Amino acid sequence: MSGLPIVLASGNKGKYAEFAAFFGSLGELSCFSLLCPDELRIAPPDPEETGESYEENALIKARAWTNTFGLPAFADDSGLEVRALSMKPGIHSARIADGSDADRVSWLLDKLNGVTDRRACFVASIVIAFPRGVNLGERDYFAARGRCRGVIADEPRGFNGFGYDPVFIPDGYTETFAELGGDVKSKISHRAIAMNGVAKMAGCVVKYSGYGI
Asked: Is residue 131 pLDDT above 70, yes or no?
């Protein structure tokens, strides 16, 4: 393994695959080596997401994991903001309904039944946190936000992705994220935009500070 080990603060395999692609394509992250959570022999933490924003929740998760494993950790918190639902479910997107992703998609479509304004926006904040005692430019974490605007489809379409991907059609396309697949999503999604931003900050600082070398 080359580079400074960093762990994804999530057990979601879909997210791991998506972020692994980012680490493989973003040169700014070449100073890191992404660890799969399954490679860690300590039970991961499961902190309560009590933040009032995407960034606060992402930071809670990233800090919990970096404090547990003593490694840099990154986390995202994301949500779907639907205009006709007063920007809900927002930060509660993953918990708005009990059950699976399909159950939450069903909840969303039920709420939008008969609604013509189906504009929506995916939002993500990504945080890279460093272990206690590490000070990189007077801070121990870096954060960036990304947005991807689109509309909600009338029914689920496609089998790629996770979460609300089967019903989200990004602006400029006629297919859902679940139909477009990883190649397109890795370029235009809310996570892709946020990851590009945080990569530039964290990667450059780590390289020039010499941390982990």
From this structure: yes
